[in-house]
Write a structure and sequence with these properties.
The chain is mostly helical. The chain has a domain of 83 residues: Tetratricopeptide repeat domain (Serine Threonine Protein Phosphatase 5, Tetratricopeptide repeat, Alpha Horseshoe). The chain contains 54 helices and no strands. α23 packs antiparallel against α24. It is globular and about 110 Å long.
């Protein structure tokens, strides 16, 4: 018979809880408060909280109840609720001596260290509890000397004071003086053997020494004294996580969650557990909850940075790590991550600057040495890279990766023999995987030491003879030796092991193509496909082969087969839809993407494909709808919000474009693209003051970038203040000496009436940077617009001399020749037309010059073509009307002019168009 007693017990507990809530109406406030105090003493915080909430329903202004509730929330790790109640107690008149120590604990728990120093008084007459909290805050901020002075003063005032002893113990532990820390903790425990903070610190110090069993005993002792102590559960969970006891950690956190469902510490520990188990998205969700409640929670910021890096999102990772490093500028783990981010962006110098101070403080950290070596290797400082890798390999002599990296750095120094020696050692140390051996073979091939490369790959073959990668590599060595027969045999060996191994298939196909045997290559792929009839990669390879031969219909069939074989897979659908777009089959691309997404409404990849195809097909409204849906799933994608912003702008919705750009910044506050777009949109909305605020925010966030100063100058230009703008453009130019800023300086100087200075400055720049075609083109265009035709001609001629195929320069040069009555106008326009026969601007210039030179028939043909390609270009329509009038077709000319003037209230040639119409 099944035992039902546990079920009855649970039911009774539930009933008791309900009765506790429902049947207290007759209790007095004093009785409820006494009950709460009793529950707190018995270690039943949830029951105490219920009684206090019942009391506060009756008496919301009861300061004692608020104070007690705040202290109980602190015990359960719910720092935010604690602060809320303690603040209310303070406003209701609770004594500062009672409230401030508790508030300080809440702020420290929530990671709001600065508030402790700002709001807790620092004069020596304050109670020890307040001074100790200030000392702990100083330690958290790395201000150890100040903390030492404070704790020493507390000790001098009251020798043996527990808070001071524990503060000095924490300081000693941070400075690596473990024995001193232990003595101080023992001294504190002599006076108060049940002091929970002392026991916890004892456990922490034991963990620092790697003595996990002693640490566990200390944390367990806390639970014996106070079974519902949440922090001890968290500490035990963290210890379990360190030892990879993930199930035990989860059990500890489940117990802690029962006592304190709102604890930030529990959320943080759960995030760490998820991170260690590779559940990065779950970890990030918990960390975002912590940071939403406590934006300055340092452990959460650090872990969030690590999680984002693991998710392959370096920019969000940096956004979390920057505030952490601002508070802890020499934190080893955070700095390593930031250095990795900088290296990923190609900013090796920035990575080196970050790592250099740590190499002094942590000279024997193998990972740090390895990172420094990699940074210098990427910066091509091969001698320094070798030094770091060599030291790391001495500290960890049996690490294959270090010897492999040392080998690469030796290669950079030109020390091929030593490089090969290190790679050989790496290969010997790692005989379980072929990576180091592969690098060795590739290095020998690069050195044209093909015989040794063959010996090395044959040695690898003994260990990894059943690995198609090794056999494919051997085929590559034989290719280098010019032995096509042996190469082919090696590639075929690889395929004998895995008939679908695409690298070997591709290598054999390339040999076939080199021998002008494309059909043999096709047969090879088809044979592999016969073994795996629904392999989309092989079908895609066949499509690529067909496309390379110009057989687009066949390529399409293969891609359609790959999609038909796996209709639910996104990758084949993406390849096929892109093919449709490239070949002009837009309707098919749209139908495919939409069908896939409708069949997979919850698949973000399918939705992203649909949005991408709609965007590429020019269906802005549909693309916007799809991207908005995608944004409800991908809530942390700033680039997605920027795409939404661009679509709103394309649809003429400036306000919503602005909101999307701001959402992008909320996700990634330092996203420069979003800030640039915001400034432009605010100017478009005639809100220069707001635009100026954004520009100055960029300056504060990134003072070493020119962008913030350039943006402020752009705002001033929009406000018709060019002289003020010049100063800021010059400031930007001092940071980033680039052509586009020279252009902005020129614009501002001309607008300020300083044309001579503008010409001198930009002329000097172009003499020093003759390759800057974009700046010269701008200057030529500016001179053309200003009707300084000779100057414009000189610049256009220089562009064309260096770039004869530049259609824009040729077209504008032809127009400048026409305005200057230069006979070269028609020939130059014809040259541009030969390069771009369907460009409406080129057709318009060519046609108008022909008309001016009396070739009415040819001019009319050219201008008709231009007008059909650009039906909304008012100038082109006017030119065609003028040509029609010259041919004597006055009704057609009059009709076109009437339509043009009705549709365009303001365009450059409006007066000429009206005059022509009046003459017809």
């Amino acid at each position: 018979m099944r035992n039902t007693r546990p079920v009855i017990s649970i039911a009774m507990l539930s009933l008791c809880s309900a009765l506790l809530l429902a049947c207290n109406g007759g209790q007095s406030s004093a009785s409820l408060l006494a009950d709460a105090q009793l529950y707190q003493q018995k270690g039943e915080p949830r029951a105490a909280i219920i009684q206090l909430k019942n009391l506060l329903q009756k008496e919301p202004d009861n300061a004692r109840a608020r104070l007690l509730l705040g202290s109980i929330y602190l015990d359960t790790g719910d720092a935010l609720s604690a602060e809320k109640e303690l603040r209310k107690a303070q406003t209701l008149g609770a004594a500062a001596a009672d409230v401030l120590p508790l508030l300080g604990k809440a702020w420290l728990m929530a990671g709001q260290v600065d508030r402790v120093l700002k709001e807790l008084p620092g004069d020596p007459a304050q109670p020890a509890a307040v001074l100790a909290l200030r000392g702990d805050a100083l330690l958290a901020l790395g201000r150890r000397d100040e903390a030492r002075t404070l704790f020493a003063a507390m000790q001098q005032r009251e020798p043996g004071q527990t808070d001071a002893l524990l503060g000095l113990a924490r300081l000693s532990a941070l400075e690596g003086q473990i024995a001193a820390a232990q003595l101080l903790i023992e001294q504190a425990l002599k006076g108060k053997p049940d002091n929970l903070e002392a026991l916890r610190l004892q456990g922490d110090v034991q963990r620092l020494q790697g003595n996990s069993s002693a640490a566990r005993l200390a944390y367990q002792q806390i639970l014996k004294l106070k079974p519902d102590q949440v922090q001890a559960r968290i500490d035990l969970a963290n210890l379990d996580i360190t030892e990879n006891k993930f199930a035990d950690a989860a059990a500890q956190l489940a117990s802690a969650r029962k006592s304190a469902p709102g604890s930030l510490g529990v959320l943080q520990a759960q995030a760490l557990l998820d991170f260690r188990q590779g559940k990065f998205k779950a970890a990030l969700e918990n960390l975002q909850l912590v940071l939403k409640a406590a934006p300055e929670h340092m452990p959460a910021l650090l872990l969030a940075g690590a999680v984002q890096l693991a998710l392959g999102s370096p920019q969000p990772a940096e956004n979390y790590l920057q505030p952490f490093l601002a508070a802890h500028p020499k934190h080893l783990y955070a700095t390593k991550m930031m250095a990795s981010i900088e290296m990923g962006r190609g900013k090796t110098d920035a990575a080196i600057d970050l790592l250099q101070p740590l190499l002094v403080a942590f000279p024997d950290d193998v990972e740090l040495l390895s990172l420094a070596g990699e940074a210098h290797l990427r910066a091509r400082h091969y001698d320094k890279a070798s030094g770091y890798f060599e030291k790391a390999s001495l500290l960890a002599p049996n690490t294959s990766k270090l010897h492999a990296a040392l080998g690469v750095s030796r290669l950079g120094q030109g020390e091929s023999a030593r490089a090969v020696s290190e790679l050989e050692r790496a290969s010997l140390l790692d005989d379980k995987t072929p990576q180091a051996g592969t690098m060795l073979v590739m290095t020998l091939l690069r050195n044209k030491d093909n015989a040794r490369a063959l010996a090395a790959v044959q040695a690898m073959e003994k260990q990894h003879g059943s690995n198609p990668l090794v056999l494919n590599l051997k085929g590559g060595v034989y290719l280098a030796l010019g032995d096509l027969r042996a190469a082919r045999a090696s590639f075929e060996q690889a395929l004998a092991i895995d008939g679908r191994y695409l690298p070997a298939l591709t290598n054999l196909a390339q040999i076939d193509m080199a021998e002008k045997q494309p059909e043999r290559a096709k047969q090879r792929y088809e044979a592999a496909l016969a073994k795996d009839k629904k392999n989309p990669d092989i079908a895609a390879a066949l499509a690529k082969l067909a496309a390379s031969q110009g057989k687009l219909a066949e390529a399409q069939r293969w891609l359609e087969k790959a999609h038909a074989d796996q209709p639910d897979a996104v990758a084949p659908a993406l390849l096929l839809s892109n093919f449709y777009l490239q070949t002009g089959a837009t309707d098919k691309a749209l139908a495919l993407a939409r069908t896939l997404q409708v069949g997979h409404p919850d698949d973000s990849d399918a939705l992203a494909l649909r949005a991408q195809v709609e965007y590429s097909a020019g269906e802005a409204r549909a693309a916007l709808d799809s991207y908005n849906k995608l944004a409800t799933v991908q809530t942390t994608s700033a680039p997605l919000q920027m795409r939404i912003s661009s679509l709103h702008l394309a649809l003429g919705d400036t306000n919503n474009a602005l909101q999307a750009a701001r959402r992008a910044q909320a996700i990634d506050p330092a996203l420069l693209d979003a800030q640039v777009v915001e400034v432009a949109l605010l100017l478009d909305l005639k809100r220069p003051r707001d635009a100026l605020a954004v520009a100055r925010k960029v300056q504060q966030q990134q003072p070493k970038l020119a962008a913030g100063y350039k943006l402020e100058a752009d705002v001033l230009m929009a406000q018709q203040q060019p002289r003020e703008a010049i100063r800021l453009y010059e400031q930007a130019f001092q940071i980033s000496r680039i052509g586009p800023l020279q252009v902005q300086l020129y614009r501002a100087s001309v607008a300020a009436g300083m044309e001579q200075q503008a010409d001198t400055r930009i002329g000097t720049w172009l003499r020093e940077h003759p390759e800057d075609k974009a700046t010269r083109l701008y200057l030529a265009g500016a001179k053309l617009k200003a009707k300084q035709y000779r100057a414009a001609i000189a610049h256009y001629q220089q562009v064309v001399a260096n770039d004869p195929g530049n259609v824009v320069a040729l077209n504008d040069l032809a127009w400048a020749y026409l305005q200057d009555k230069d006979s070269r106008a028609l020939a130059t326009a014809e040259q541009a037309h030969q390069l771009a026969p369907d460009n409406p601007a080129v057709l318009d210039t060519f046609g108008w010059i022909a008309l001016e030179q009396g070739d009415t028939k040819r001019a009319t043909e050219l201008l008709r073509r231009a007008a059909s390609l650009a039906p909304n270009a008012a100038e082109i329509q006017y030119h065609l009307a003028a040509a029609l009038a010259r041919t004597g077709d006055k009704p057609a000319a009059r009709k076109r002019l009437e339509q043009l003037l009705a549709a365009n209230k303001d365009f450059a040639q409006r007066a000429e168009a009206q005059a022509l119409l009046a003459r017809l």
